Amino acid sequence: MSEKNILALSFKPLGDTPKVYTDPVMIEPNSSNRWDVDTESTDGDENKKRGNWSNQFDFILSCLGYAVGLGNLWRFPFLCFKNGGAVFLIPYAICLLLIGMPIFVLELYLGQFSSSGPLTVWRFSPMFTGVGIGMMVASSLVGIYYNIVMAWALYYLFASFTSKLPWQDCGDWSSDTCITKLPDISGCNTTLQEVAYPNGTCYNANGTLLGVYNDTLLKQYNITRSSAAEEYFFNTVLQVGSGLETFSDLTGISWQLSLCLLLAWIIDFFCLFRSVKSSGKVVYFTAIFPYVVLIILLIRGALLSGSLNGVEWYIAKADLSKLRTPEVWLDAITQIFFSLSASFGGLHALSSYNKFHNNCLRDAIIVSLGNCLTSFFAGFVVFSYVGYMAELQGVDIDEVAKGGPSLAFVIWPSAVATIPVSPLWSILLFFMLITLGLDSQFTLLETIFTGLLDAYPKIRKHKVWVHLAVCLVLFGLGLPMCTKGGLYLLDYVDSAINGWPMVILGLTELIAVAWVYGAYPRYKVIFLRAIEDMKVMLGDSLLLKITAPWWTLCWILIAPVLLGVVTVVSWILYKPNPSYFGEVLQWLVRFAIVGPIIIYPVLYGIYCLIVRPKDKTFIRPQRDWGPSLVKHRRLVTYDPNFVTDPYHEEMGLTTRNGKETPSGNVNVGYVY
After folding, report:
1. Digit-coded pLDDT (tens) for 463-496
2. Domain CATH code at residue 356
3. Which residue, 312, 394, 640, 664, is most buried by CB atoms nearer than 10 A?
4. Residue 604 forms beta bridges with which residues?
């Protein structure tokens, strides 16, 4: 390429006056305009085109809000109750140290080091791009049903602005087995022509149901009385049908829920239309407010009768025999993935907006520990109300303790309905649930946005329209969950995602970084390029020096082996869905997540063999892998083949560690 052409490429218009940059080395990738100046912008961003977090606290709060979600509130406490109480903390802590935290650190490092989201971060080994596609699919599916839960919470929030909560008593919307319609009575008075039925119920002479005179007979006939809150949730809010066996069961859409769902997506759009610049400010409220409300709810719950019994069931009754069952360990690992949001691509997306020298290792430790402590703390709040409801209903705690949506939309509404000034407590509760879910939803959507904008940088200048298009598409895909079969559909999708598919994504990611990216003939296996990359970012960090051997051991050996074992055991213990429709749907979801791991490298490999047989980037790093800015790429000195300025190379020169040589016939892969 001639000198004239080189200088032509170094022109870039700024406003009305073009400016000539005479140093063609000072350029930057990953933008809609490929040739950009390697300098900080006037607003303090290192990466002018992608942007950066306004400050470090924005990032930490966003990560914490992403990790701390509804699962911390309704899944973790129930798993503790199910798996031996405090004993569950043992496998949970072990899995956190051996699997959860190492993957959390790994994903933050990858995103920050390369300034790339989940689709383009795999330039260190493009054959693993299918993992990023699987992460995008998983985040999209979770984002769809997460906003459905937000729609439920919005419905309850609006319904709470009243003098008397609608689920406080059984209304016209309830069935005959609703508890206030089926009260306990002392017996049937035959002198008043009351009739005692064999199932334990009593009717008057006019055929009107009076109540239950014998609860034992009622249970023998498999008749279960339900609370007003339970019937309100299933019959009024969700209008649940009998099941989901065919597509015809996805009918009877609720216009109230649909409007709430639309509102949820409108909130998402306006909070994210400026990407991390806007969401980074919203999280100051949405990440902190739930903690304030949880503390208030804990104080109020501790004053209720029976609350100590609930807390005792949660933490004090330890069953060590549970540690011998594989299901407990599977639950612990699954919860770690779900709670830390590992392998969903969100951590890559969030950290990709960090400045290059941000201490992501410190942030990872703070957020992962903070998330798990939040789960533990939320259990005290939850079970204080579970114990209260058990005493109020005169039943054992295990008859009240339920995980999933029933906890947030049945048990808690039942509890607040019995407390003085119940509408105020209900408003506080559901507003907390909304803010708790919004943080996670923001990052799920940011994962999609970042992946698309990084993969197709030309659309970055239209990112507001991209955000709008994504929100509209996902809103449309979520509408079937507003039908009578919507709850079953949500449950099928949730169960399919939060299991071995996410474990396989995490396992493949570890293999890619530790054994493919880090295992070159010139280096010993114990040498891990990921650690060297982190040294470039963090410099002389004492924390990295202390923990580097641990991350190396976990990434190379411990975590992959454990995840491999978990995957095999999950397949052995697999139980098919009793619904044929549900089973087929769940396998389609699993294939959509895991399938790209196999399909992408096969198709990409065939393409390389036919079109570019000499291309070595199929497994090895591409020349533009690494820091986004050239000034940071110059810090990578441990690899003699690392290309300091791959964009300069396209002009006819190769720059390796600052040494400029003629490139000749450029091979776009590393040479070893």
Report:
1. 889 999 999 999 999 999 999 999 999 999 998 9
2. 1.20.1740.10
3. 312
4. none
371 annotated among ligand-binding-site residues: yes
Long-range own/partner contacts, residues 302-308 (CB < 8 A, 24 or more apart): 302/384, 304/384, 304/385, 304/387, 304/388, 304/415, 304/419, 305/388, 305/391, 306/387, 306/388, 306/389, 306/390, 306/391, 306/392, 307/384, 307/385, 307/387, 307/388, 308/384, 308/387
Q: Are 387 and 313 in contact (CB under 8 A)?
A: yes
What tokens appear for 500 in the block? Answer: 């071995």
pLDDT for residue 401: 63
Q: Which residue, of 560, 587, 607, is where some domain finishes?
A: 607
Q: Which residues contact 622 (CB under 8 A, 6 or more apart)?
A: 123, 124, 126, 668, 669
Gyration radius from the chain CA atoms? 28
**Structural tokens at position 401:** 């303790």
Please count the other Cβ atoms lying within 10 Å of the Cβ belonging to residue 315.
19
**Inside any domain, residue 670:** no
Whether 436 has a binding-site annotation, put simply, is yes
3-state secondary structure of 115: coil
The answer on whether 51 is annotated among ligand-binding residues is: no
How much is the pTM?
0.85
User: Is 72 annotated as a binding-site member?
Assistant: yes
426 and 465 part of one domain: yes
Question: Which SS3 state, helix, strand or coil, does residue 11 take?
Answer: strand
What domain range includes position 208? 183-224
Q: What is the separation of C-alpha 193 from the centre of its chain, rounded to a whole number of angstroms?
A: 60
pLDDT above 70 (res 660): no
**DSSP of 173-227:** TS-TTBTTTS-B-S---GGGT-EE-TTSEEE-TTS-EEEES-HHHHHHTT---B-
Q: Is 109 exposed, middle or buried (0-12, 13-18, 19+ CB in 10 A)?
A: buried
Residue 440 annotated in ligand binding:
yes
Name, in order, each residue with C-beta under 8 angstroms of 64's C-beta and a sequence gap of 6 or more.
287, 367, 370, 371, 439
- Asked whether 603 and 136 are in contact (CB, 8 A), the reply is no
Q: Which of 451, 196, 244, 447 is nearest to 346 (CA)?
A: 447
State whether 298 and 409 are in the same domain: yes
- pLDDT given for residue 462 in this prediction: 87
- Closest by CA to 274, choosing from 557, 467, 518, 523, is 467
Task: Give the chain's length.
Answer: 672
Q: Does 172 appear as a known binding residue?
A: no
196 DSSP β-pair partners: 202
Tell whether 421 and 559 lie within a shared domain: yes
Q: How far is Cα 610 from Cα 604, in angstroms, rounded to an integer?
A: 10
